Each structure stands twice: as C-alpha cells, then as structure tokens.
Amino acid sequence: MNIEKLTNNRSPYHELLFDSFLIENIKSYEELMDVYQTYKQNHPDKTIILTLDDLGQAEYTSGHACDSNFLLDTDGYDLTGLDKACYDEDNEHLGHLSTPSEYFIIRENFLKHTKGIDFKTVCEKGISNSEDDVIDLENINESPLAFLDQQVILKILPVEKPYEGLTGFPNGYFDADLSPFDNYALSKYLFETYNLELFGIGASFLGFIKNEKLEDNKVNALIADLAKLYNTTASEFEKLADIIKNKNHLFLRYTE
Hints:
7-stranded mixed β-sheet; single chain; globular; 7 strands; 15% strand; 8 helices; alpha+beta
C-alpha cells in the first residue's frame, strides 16, 4: 500500500481545506481499515473520512453539490484574520476557499441546510429497492474491497462527530438520491441509535463502523429501520441481517 500526502493541485476545495492523503495499491479491506484506525488514533480531536466507490464520480458530484447548495459562499462571514494566503496583494479576499483557516465556512453553510431533516424525512425521500439493489448491499457488506476504487483519499477533518465529516465531502447531487443533508441526518441517526460511526462516502455508498457488537434485538431494529429507508419489508434483508451480525461494518446505498 502507498500513502502520499496530496498537494494543492487537485481541486479548488476538496483537498485545500484540510490534510488529505492518496492511498493506492490496497491489498485488502482490513489493511485499509488499519490505516483508518491509525490516523484516527493519531488525530483524536478530528474526524477521518475515506472515499469509497468511484472516486472520480464522487468528486465530480461533490463539487456540484457544493455549487448548487452554495456551500462555498463567503457572504456574511467575517473574513478578517484568516491565513495570509487567503488575500491578494491588495489585502482583499481571493473570493474562493483555499486554506484550512476557511474550513468553518463550508461547515457552517452545510449545517444550515440540515435544520429540520431527521431520519423520518430521509425515509420519505422514497429510495427504491430492487432485487439487484438488495444483492449489491449484501455483496458490498460481504466483500467491501471489490466495490472500493483503486484510489482512496483519506481526509482529516477538523470536526468531532463522525457524521460531521460529510461537511468536508458533501455528496448526493441527483434529485432521486439522498442529498448531502439527508446523508448527514441518516449518519447522525445511525450513530446516536446504534453507535455506527461514519467512516466513508463514495459515489453511491456510505460506510459505517460498528463500535460495539449489536445484540439480536438491535440488529432486528436496524433491519426494520433499513426497510423504512429503502421502502421495503424487513424480510428482504434477512441475508443482510446475518452478514451484519458477523461484520464490523455496514455499507448503505444512498443513490437511486
């Protein structure tokens, strides 16, 4: 496995507002999670987020999600006292976010959109659940590595709660998908209800870590919640329930 710190030449905001590392030549999912845990332990006051499936598409839709929701808008913020690199030769703000000192702007803009969104409203989004979708959920939870991109970016975000990591990589752009703010509400609910810690987001999937063993009653409750999320019946997820019991992770699809 190779890990390389990213420089400022990838995008106008994804890797400029926090430290990011490109991970390549991943041999196993367990190896990747060891890296995640190491960075998490080394940065106890921050949140670590990994990209998951289809990195190029995930970055593309994240950019559009930021633009369409004005998450990079600086209007109304005090722009004095930022890093010197934020200003031009006339001491005027450059007009775009380019340093970690400005991360609070995208975070605050994001959180403004989360007001009034909870798990119930996320379920009302009405994501469909075909037979193939069920099989995909079973397969990614059984063998995550097969679904991950060959390139994964690890992001170190200056937030405490794992679900707040979405403020640094908002995703969910198309109308039929869960929005970035739906994903936030869903991730917050799963963390507070089942202690499932968001650790990654890709073009189609969210990834969670189980911080404790779920007893049968908790697994049944989780499956019931997933049935509500995907507008189906719990019986559709019997095999998924068995997989979840024996794994330390949970992957969920947030796209149509």
